[in-house]
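Suppose a classmate hands you a notebook page containing two proteins, each written out with its sequence and a corresponding row of structure tokens. How would you begin to make sense of it? This section walks through that situation. The first entry is reproduced here exactly as it would appear on such a page.
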Amino acid sequence: MPGSANSMLSTHDVSEANKLINELTQSHLTSIESQKLIAQYMSALDAEVTHHKFYPQLNQFHPLHFFTSPDSGLISENISCSLLGVNTVGIVRAPRGDGKEAIVLVTPINSKKVGPGEALSLGIAYSVFSLLSRVTWLAKDVVWLVADSQYGEYSAVAAWLTEYQAPVSRGIGIVNSEQCNGSNTIDEYDGFRRAGTMAAALVIKVAEQGNHIEDSINIYAEASNGQMPNLDLINIVNYLAVHKQGLRMKVKKMWSLLGSRWLNTLGVIFESLGHIARSLDPKWKFSIPAAEYVEGAATLASSLYYQGLGVPTGPHGAFRDYQVDAITLEILPKVSPAKMIRRNDFMLRGGRLIEGIIRSINNLLEKFHQSFFLYLLTSPSKFVSVGVYMIPFALLVAPLPIVAASLHADANKSTPLATPASEVDVNRKSWKWLNSARKVLVIHLWGAVVSLLPYFLCQIPNTTATTNFITWGLLSAFSLVILSLILGSPIFETAASQPEKSEWASLKSVTISTTFIGLSLMSVINFATAEIGALLIVPICLMARPLRLDVQARSLRTLLRAICNLALGFIGFPPVAYVLMKGTFEGFHGTNVGDYWNWVESLWTWNSATYLYVGVVHLPCWALCVHILFHHC
């Protein structure tokens, strides 16, 4: 029931929050002094306060840590205690609750130097926290986490969550207080305090820059491996922000698509078709303005890309690793926080929005579950559900098993003869696919080796991205030669070992089968990655055919097919596909080969399953299709 109750946040709460802001920004406080000040303000509200120390994290590539949160590479040896991060946590106990559920507020700040935007976000959170410490309707505990983001926002939140959810596991980003009491003079509170099971979490941030047309809010929802919070949480925020506080809600979009001529032309065509349909029958009201179509398409492309990337778009991603619905709200002020005159009005609107969200979550008797978890956003209030966008994926992959079965049947065709020799020959042909399966296995083993090589390349100090990419490519080619020679060459074959002409059909059949299995498995882990991958790899899998046969046929159809196969093979190569997509959306200016290494590095440091898909599924299937194209050439 969002917005059903009147807001209770008053100007008095905002005035008290202003005192905290002024003390943080006008005084030259050290990191420890800033945390002490925040803790004092929390304690003044009779909240339970604790400090959480944690080691900074250095994300590195670890092959065995995929599908988990990126907590690897912790700097835990020979580290100075002065470099430790310190989170400040305050807990307000619910007067109507039993301590079994909680709502989490997160405000990331750089404790070494609190900026105007960070101070303003602290002020908004404090005003709401002050109100919640007095209300009688609160049924869930409220936890306010002031995350020390000097080593990264995600790192600070993830370290606290690790201790909150798994108190038994010491040593993973957690510090023994006794080790650092000598150099870290921050006051120690009694142990690590907890509330109940987290119902939802909100990360609050205020942008440092102004120059916006109006006060607005950016919402970030994507977490690791394409996980999204329940859509009802986004709907609550959108309803309260737009209809109650008059704030404009925005989600990420591909800005390069907004100025795309072909997309604008397509929008105009759809708008004209809608007008024509409505003129024929007024009941047909499916026309959409061209501008709205273009903006929706740009937002949809962004949602699909960031889900497929598998990298969290904010610290809220740490909560989704524990199946807690969480989003990041970035408030964009019209004027820069440092030059803001009507700061109280801005804080009042932002605070009342947070109050309304918390009150709506507080009313729930159970976790969010009635709405969608699999969806693509086209605007803050519109989406494409999994029931819709799974249809194009199903249409893409459905031909794969059919074509594979047809090719297998054609490859094993033989004229039946009633002789024992012919029966032996038929049996041999029926098992001929095992030779193709061996070749496919070799290529997929090569893909696994290619995926593991960056682990060793990362150990080499003082290397550039371009050098790493070139070294990676050379080692990948060398490993392919070695595996081909050891396990049976699928590429370097002698003419005497070549069976009949249908061998490429059998190889294509097995390749298509493995592609279908890989895409189906990836759709379970990250549907967006499977959708994008299918767009790139399925066409070449279906069309792959030896170029020599198409050239010898010398017909227009076969020549066009050969040209299409060469184009698809070029586009399907992962580095080329990345450069083309980046150039399309951002322009080709300044693009170099090292960009692909940086992109892939961001995938493995965040343990994105998309990296495994590219190395273990997409790259081997592409290599097999290219091998089929140049078969017997």
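The notebook's second entry, a different protein, reads as follows.
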Amino acid sequence: MTSALTRRRSPRRWAAVAAAVLLILTGAVTAVLRAPSAQALENGVARTPPMGWNSWNTFGCNINESLIRGMADAIVSSGLRDLGYQYVVVDDCWFNPNRDSSGNLQGDPSRFPSGMKALGDYLHGKGLKFGIYEAPLDKTCGQYFGSYPGATGSGGHETQDARQFAAWGVDYLKYDWCSPTGSINDQVTVFSRMRDALAATGRPIVYSINTNSVHAKTGPQRNWGDVANLWRTTEDIQNMWNGGQVNNYPMGVQNIVDVTVPLAGYAGPGHFNDPDMLEVGRGGGMNDTEMRSHFALWAMLAAPLLAGNDVRSMNAATKTILGNRNLIAIDQDSLGLQAIQVSNDGTRRVLAKRLANGDVAVALFNQGGSTTTVSTTAAAVGKAGSSFTLLDAWSGAVTSSSGPISASVPAHGTVVYRVSGGTTGGTTSPPPSNGATTLVSAASGRCLDVPNSNTANGTQPVIWDCNGQANQRWTASGPTLQALGKCLDAPLGATAGSKVQLWDCNGGTNQQWTFNANGTVSGAASGLCLDVNGNATANGTTVLLWTCSAAANQRWTRA
């Protein structure tokens, strides 16, 4: 964890002068904290998360025309196409290692002898859509790691390659950084070139990017919705439950969920977090319970559902999971919301996702190693009333409840209920927990706010006009205060003047808070109080830790 950041205050007798200076500077500070968010990419596609199949997880570089056509046939005959699995994405190693004399990309003549346009035509003739892979620098991942020859990345060829893709009838482009070079700003610039080149073709093409390959994990660091329709949040998924990593190889399902849950505010129609392709049906890594959880959690996360198994040889369990209409409906809900975290005690985790018809999908997720009961309430997930209907997404069983939502869940299992009845609150998603509240500063009447819904560790809260959004809703979960899936945290060894910040919840005393009778909120580890910096009242003023005085800028009302 980062060390405490401290600053000396002006003496209180200079408070009026300091406040005046702060008011002068507020415009600049606010511009930084509240710069208008970049507009989401509006290219008319991916209004719900794309569904389909990708060649990489099972076949890697071992692909050819016959394989892809056979897989397309199986997607149709198995009924997956009619359930929404439309995109057939040909991943790395499809190309001739050399461009032609005009600099155009070509399919590998030994692997795709009929050519890429013919393949696209075949897929379209089956009622499917054509996806393809490329990279934005000089090499694709296969070329970077030496598993495929050549250097045919799109760097410097963006306009030419986009036109080529459009001419071939491509409907989906997976664009993979795969290089240790470049800052996050470089990535934004380079990825945006292909975004603009695709738009210039006039063909609607889903644009899916991965900023993380062989690179710092920039996927979770910003909302990429202004650049792409889909952006990978983590390193590549592996066929495993837990790789013990934060965001590095190997990434299992549990690890990816941990990274992606806090990013809920980024998702919406046309722009979705991408926790990577499905491992469902690939033997040897996870048991059926874990595979079911994998699929259920991806549906709750409004994730693209791109199967990665050999569709030609699916067993009954795989067909049941990939074909679950209840979960597909949750994933494909027209609101396009990603579930937010209601509670998490380290073992029992609850996620909730508001749906277009007023229902709420609730996932009861057992992260532990033995069966346990996972519970929440209708009120906690944003439902008001006294009579509710619960549809079990797996069994199809329907039960009634006056409010409790509970199930016995096996190790690594996930029970999903679709909760209907009552009324649904919230403007964008359900309140994150029973006890969700806003914290209103007595001095200004403004709310404790996570600026721009930034969930990066170390983000410093501010005060801002109260608006009821998720970045101003705080969950009192035991002694912790949580917003957007992160905990309010005092840096280790914090002293007066240290910033208060968001951080991954870890159960430490530096993340435990007490609501005092005088309206102050004090930290268990530091004994210091949440304080609006410099007694200022303007939007964007930071909140930090200071010696408790019960002054108005340290008093908070829960609303």
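A careful reader of the second entry would note: The two ends are 31 Å apart (CA to CA).
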